[in-house]
Amino acid sequence: MVALHEGRAIHGYAVRREIGLCDDVFETTLLDMYYKCGGIGLAASVFAKMDARKTTNVGSWNTLIAAYLQNGQAFEAFDLFRQMICRNVLPDLVTLANAILCYGELNYFRRGMSIHGYMITMGAELDLVASTALVDLYCKIDVTKARKLFERLGNKDAVVYNVMMTGYLENELPADAVNVFREKLKTNVSPNVALFLNLIPAVLNLRDIILVRSIHGYALRHTHISHVEIANQIIHTYAKYGYVVDARVVFHRMRTRDLVSWTSMMTSYIYHGHIDEAINLFLIDFFHGNELSVNNSLITTYAKSGKLHMARSIFEQMTELCLTSWNAMIGAYAMHGNYTDVLELFDHMKIAKVTPDEVTFTSILTACSHSGLVEEGGIQSGQKRVGNTEEVMAIVHDLITKNLVNLIADQGEMQRQHKLLILYATQTGNALDAAERLARETELPTIQRISPKLQPVT
């Protein structure tokens, strides 16, 4: 749209300055610019003014016919070609090539073949554009004849290879389409996006997983895997074969995804019985995958239901991570006592240069305390990992107090004053005082072992 706007501005400037008026070369260039920028209506308007002034030439006719074909308006292209012949404008090879493409699109096969006959009668030396148009036409009439034309071509480009492969696919001959691709590999012709888009459906019909992996690797080496449509095709192919993990790897590595990407991956999950993954993917897609609060809530929700793998999957798919995201995932592991994963994630958090807060420290220390209880040094181990700041020490003593409460509850009946001491420690935050007094007044070995490990809050 920007290019079209700038092109119109230049055109307007030329009109105001009376530059290029009645110049067929300048106006043909305008035609070309407008249709390439998507302004087919503006191109037609320029052509109509040229036609009214009798300044059209074969180049301007060719440009507008090609514009209509590129825009999927084959009938308008055919009508323009008919007008051109009625005006006694002598067509050139470009005109005839466009006419053949036009007749092929409209299934006017006899007319297309008559143009081919005209070329032969005139002894015209076909260029690659005209030859490609003929291959495309005969693919729709008789693919064997198309193949003969294809083989007679000297220098082939990626376009004619694409046309031949498409012809075989449309005639339900996928093996022949793959063979054309193999022939191309022996040449110096570089593959383009269209070539892969034709190749992958052919492989899907052959049900050859080894060939699929080969094409996937080839696409990776030629960086075409970054193209959304190619990646979507590979996801679809892997999913059809039942290789969901491979499909998921391709999906996660995509830098950009469209509706087809999400739909293909969700369909793959559902078809192969991975309902949770499909729901997860749907929720991320529904909220566009970049709503931090939604993703963070999903992590917590899955963690509470015991589906840590789903929580981690969401975490890894998030394109943007905030402190809350890290806390949600660390908290998820801490909730289930997975202290190893907690510490590993905390290390990644530090590498990402995200500053932890009280919630982070609490989750880490809680996980460590659950891993070995207080008397086995779990909290002290976690304390070494996160540091000895005043904030951390306060959390440590709070956790020890809570563990003391749990320990006493586990010992059965205790004297009422012992419980009051714990209440006092909880209210004042002085776990050291409570532990020392309990150690003096009770014979419980667990309480006596805890006391020497505590440090006063300063």
From TrEMBL:
UniProt repeat feature PPR, residue ranges: 57-91, 157-191, 322-356
One MF term in the entry's GO annotations: RNA binding
Domain Flavodoxin-like: 420-458
Alphabetic keyword roster: Repeat
GO biological process, one term: RNA modification
Protein name: Flavodoxin-like domain-containing protein
Organism of origin: Pisum sativum
